Amino acid sequence: MGISERREREKKELRNKILVTAKDILLKEGWQQLSIRNIAAAIEYSPATIYLYFEGKDEIVYQLIKMGFMKMSEFFEPVLSEPNPMERIRKSGEAFINFSLSNPEWFELLFNTPEHICDVDKYMEDTNPGLQVFEGLLQTCQEAIDQGFTHIKDAHILATMAWSMVQGLVMLIRSGHLEHLLEIEEQELIDDSIETFMKTIFKEKRN
Predict the structure, then answer these.
(1) Domains of the chain and any CATH numbers
(2) For 109-167, what is each residue's pLDDT tens digit?
(3) What is the reported pTM?
(4) Which residues of the chain carry a pLDDT beneath 50?
(5) Which of 15, 49, 200, 204 has a CA positioned 20 to 30 A from the CA of residue 65?
(6) Apex CA 87: angle with CA 67 and CA 157, to 5°?
(7) Which secondary-structure segment (H or E) carries 113?
(8) Is 61 exposed, middle or buried (0-12, 13-18, 19+ CB in 10 A)?
(9) Alpha helix (H) residue ranges in the chain
């Protein structure tokens, strides 16, 4: 490996270290403690070094959000090939729950982040990674409506209902409260909740 290649690798490693450290601070100490100075102290570099890689805290947060949604998209990839929009919604709900419960740190960062904390909009590229996920759900919901699978006529309402159900279920499971309230296995609760939602919202396709 040449000198330039080694330096490039070291830059990538330090950039990743900055992001990992920022994520740890967010999750362990809270948003109030996230600052360039605190990140620099944690990795034992000067604040000026951080600015060689990122414009500031907002860009760091955006990059973390982007990484999180890229991770989540891996769980949705197998769902995209499902031709039936109603089944695609079911599988999307299962994918979201699987991602959230197997990646609790990313769930916390992506879905419990106060929007007013940082200004990440200026770093958005052509597409917002989080919006892409929701737009995919919107499109699937519109297909279900167009094909007569549901009495609901607004794709935004249908998508929000589906999202609210699975995210609420994840938050209840993660809180630990259900362990004391319900004598039911976690997976059974997930399966029954999704099945009940599907039967309530959707119907057999009309002729």
Answers:
(1) 1-54 (1.10.10.60), 57-201 (1.10.357.10)
(2) 888 876 555 565 665 565 666 777 888 899 999 999 999 999 999 999 999 999 999 99
(3) 0.85
(4) 206-207
(5) 49
(6) 70
(7) none
(8) buried
(9) 3-29, 36-43, 47-50, 57-76, 85-102, 104-111, 129-146, 155-175, 178-181, 186-201
